[in-house]
Amino acid sequence: MKSLKDIVTGGCGFIGSHLVDALLAQGRQVYVIDNCRVGRQSNLINHANNPNLEIFEVDVSERKTMTKLFTGADRVFHLAAMADIIPSINNPELYIDANVNGTYSVVEAAHKAGVRRFIYAASSSCYGIPKSYPTSEMSQLEPQYPYALTKMLGEQIVLHWAQVFSLPAVVLRMFNVYGTRARTSGTYGAVFGVFLAQKIANKAFTVVGDGKQTRDFTYVSDVVEAFIKAAESNLVNEVMNVGSGSTYSINYLVKLLQGDVVHIPKRPGEPDCTFADISKISHMIDWKPKISLEEGVNKMIENIDYWKDAPVWSPESIQEETKIWFDKLS
């Protein structure tokens, strides 16, 4: 009988740690593989004495180690990746190594181990600036910056291994995931991390453009449920969007967060709207989001101390940090 061991790459990170929580709650044995460059083991501190959890601080690109760790694995959830736009422009090689070569290493180890299920965490950034909303899985892929490109290439590797080597894989394209434990690193990026640090410091929210742009904010627990349902399904070689079922303006978000606003220039290469068509995933695995934006924001505010050490961005520091963004993508 096969082991009930699950591999979660990137399991010390934001989404990964929530997924590990859920898998351990099901009584699964979980191997977390994370280089802790972005993720942190403290996200899993509540499981410090859980005999079903083992954490390996290692990079997924280390192929021999991956092959060894994957032995006996039943399912693989591949979430390990470098994120954010600006660092990917500054250092695309790092993103190729992590998101492309790292994904190759993981699919090869999974293939050799004969895993029963493989779930890949893809990104809606692969759509670039969509031509239609809500955006379906059949929409053209037009990545606008290296991070999006490398996530798309990783997705294509996974699907190719599913096609040629019968890897039992499913790809989930995630839209604007937010929630507790979202990244607090020094890199300028996700809107919630920026806004919550500003709220703690009683600084104005730095709203890009006129704030009318909308995002498909999807709460992390809904995303975790999608991963688990996909892993429990019999689907193979399928791509599915994971979104909230709606899209919300940044102006509405800052209204929920309550605070002053300062506007900064609109950035090139960013869509005015992200909005997932989730009809496919709803039909194929009977998944639907449960957490409204209002509920999700309340959960974030209740746990706002998590962002107390995050950098507080100002219009001036953002202008300096994003200069290369304007230079390269305009």
Main sheet summary: 7 strands, parallel
Task: Point out poorly predicted stretches.
Answer: none
Helix content: 25-40%
Text of the CATH class of the largest domain: Alpha Beta
First-residue to last-residue Cα separation: 56 Å
Arrangement of strands in the largest sheet: 3-2-1-4-5-6-11
Order of helices and strands, N to C?
A: EHEEHEHHEHEEHEEEHEEHEHHHH
Which CATH architecture of the largest domain would you pick?
Answer: 3-Layer(aba) Sandwich
What structural class do helix, strand and pairing data support?
alpha/beta
Keywords summarizing the entry:
330 residues; alpha/beta; UDP-galactose 4-epimerase, domain 1; 2 domains; seven-stranded parallel sheet; two-stranded parallel sheet; 12 helices; globular
Description of the molecule:
Helices cover 39% and strands 16% of the residues. By secondary structure, the protein is of the alpha/beta class. It folds into two domains: 5-176 and 219-242, NAD(P)-binding Rossmann-like Domain (Rossmann fold), CATH 3.40.50; 178-216 and 245-275 and 291-329, Alpha-Beta Complex (UDP-galactose 4-epimerase, domain 1), CATH 3.90.25. The strands form four sheets. It has a seven-stranded parallel β-sheet, with helices on both faces. A two-stranded parallel ribbon has the order 7-10. The longest helix is centred in the N-terminal third of the chain and has 22 residues, at 92-113. It is globular. The mean pLDDT is 95.
